[in-house]
Amino acid sequence: MDLVGACRAFVTVSERGSFTVGAAAARMAQSVASRRVAALERHLGGRLLERTARAATLTPFGRDMLPLATSLVRLADRLEHEAEEARRGPLRLAVPDTCGAGPLARLIAAAHGAGLLLDPRPAAPAERAELVRTRQVRAALLATPAVEAAWTVPLGLAVTDGADDGPLYLDTLRPGRTDRDQRARRIWLQTEDDVPHIRDGLARLRDAVGLRPAQLAGAHGVAAAAGEVLGRGDALLCSPAQAAELGLRWRPVGEAPELARGFTLAVADASDPEAALLGVACAAGIAGCLGAREAAA
């Protein structure tokens, strides 16, 4: 016997005092409601309803059983609701911690439009890779070389000097002979750019133009690095959007004008249809969140 279905018929009929009205409220035929209530009475060993041509009224036994039957129906409804919510749980996406709150909000809104409940989790490049590998998130935007990427973000140097927005050549940061004892201007790398395919190329360029090893340094935080730019005339490697947010002048690197971050979408489970849909339905939103100049096809 379908105990939940029988209790549902009993509850709706008793609440409305009629098999006809109660069956309609439960979205079942009157004959089905009648059979289910009769089966429940046999199962419980007592008559629940007194039937007349026009009404159905509770018996004393029915009044005792109604609260428990009602609780069972509500618990069953809650179970179905919770199961639906679990199936449509948030899609946790590991994103770069350089993504601003505004672009993230617009990405979440774009995901809503595609029927996805997105839960972004900002993290550094290595952490994002580990999160998706261990399935702590369902998808992640991984840092990759620009030539392999679905989205690319141009990189340049944020500075306070310069009469225009033309290229800034690294060799202009080379300290002169008389500056040996002075602190040379530094290029600060954010955690997002402290990855081999960006860091190693800049290190080779630093050595080629004759900069000191210490002139390429990892930043402990964006605010601290921007403070060094404002206070000491250093340079911060970043995107145009981030430079504008910090109130700094963005200039491409003269010796590497195509320098860029690259991102691809990795999913933890290839059979996850929602995670796979994300890269297609929300490609433009992801591009906006990253500050990218290209979106995945």
Automatic annotation (TrEMBL):
InterPro entries attached to this UniProt entry: LysR_HTH_N (IPR000847), WH-like_DNA-bd_sf (IPR036388), WH_DNA-bd_sf (IPR036390)
Pfam families hit by this protein: HTH_1
Family from the record: Belongs to the LysR transcriptional regulatory family.
Superkingdom classification of source: Bacteria
Provenance organism: Streptomyces chisholmiae
Keywords: DNA-binding, Transcription, Transcription regulation
Protein name: LysR family transcriptional regulator
HTH lysR-type domain sequence ranges: 1-59
Segment forming the signal sequence: none
